[in-house]
Specification:
267 residues; alpha+beta; 8-stranded mixed β-sheet; 19% strand; two-stranded antiparallel sheet; 10 helices; 44% helix
């Protein structure tokens, strides 16, 4: 239950175990904790000190013995909020510094960056989220992409995309369309900053690309499991011309507002 929380705060496994033990055994002594967790008492004290410093555990005296309790549970969301605020501040600092990271005035970013596996492909699509208030185009076999990268990933990606004001015109092949009721994060309309069209049924594909900021993110099928980013204005323009042609013969689709309104409340 607490693994993700403690991992985000950088706590050791021993710290997590002691906290979990105190949840089940409030008022335990360091000796009791050490014996039941088969952990040296010195290590128990070290980890209790960490928990106390983070206002997660309280130390009290009972019958001339030090006993330990879980502190106010409200401290958990407070600590997470502090962590998020710190990360956001660091993110803003990194983003402001990135434009100045060059050698002799020329960017050192490679023209082609290749990634493999699920996490690698997610990294490919996350590159888009460095930008704000841009127009993009995606030719995506969306059901294949969701099956490959996961529904939760696309929910989080779309929340951040919308927050950053990134607009998308998307074309799906009819064979790889999805139900908006099942995938509300993939809705379209003004609030989603997205328009979706379905290509003629004779047109189908298993790979996809996302064209943005003179870059093209290409994603393979699940079977092949790779992705790459090409930084090229000429290549981006070439695919834009192709996209516009397919867009002109594709049919717009819109979700039932009731099917997607729940997701919009989370943005």
């Amino acid at each position: 239950m607490f693994d993700s929380f403690f991992n985000e705060l950088g706590f050791a496994t021993a710290t997590k175990r002691i906290y979990a033990y105190l949840v089940e055994h409030p008022g335990a002594t360091a000796r009791q904790i050490a014996e039941n967790l088969n952990t040296p008492r010195a290590s128990v004290y070290d980890n209790l000190k960490i928990l106390i410093q983070h206002t997660l555990v309280l130390e009290q005296i009972r019958d001339n013995k030090k006993v330990f309790y879980i502190d106010d549970p409200k401290n958990i969301p407070r600590l997470l909020a502090e962590k998020i605020a710190k990360l956001q501040k660091e993110k803003a600092s990194v983003e402001s510094f990135l434009p100045h990271m060059n050698f002799g005035g020329e960017s050192f970013e490679p023209k082609i960056k290749f990634y493999s596996g699920v996490e690698g492909v997610r990294q490919v699509l996350n590159d888009l989220l460095w930008y704000e208030n841009i127009e993009t185009q995606a030719l995506f076999p969306i059901s294949e992409m969701v099956a490959f990268l996961g529904k939760e990933y696309f929910e989080n990606h779309n929340r951040e995309r919308i927050r950053r004001g990134i607009h998308i015109n998307a074309i799906w092949p009819k064979s790889h369309a999805v139900s908006f009721k099942d995938q509300p994060a993939l809705g379209s309309g003004k609030k989603f900053l997205r328009e979706i069209r379905v290509a003629p049924k004779q047109m189908t594909w298993d790979m996809g690309y996302w064209n943005y900021a003179d870059k093209v993110a290409v994603v393979s099928s699940r079977k092949e499991g790779f992705g790459f980013i090409i930084s090229s204005k000429d290549f981006s323009q070439l695919l834009r011309a192709q996209f516009d042609l397919v867009w002109s013969v594709s049919k717009e689709i819109k979700p039932n507002p009731k099917d997607v309104e729940g997701f919009l409340k989370t943005v």
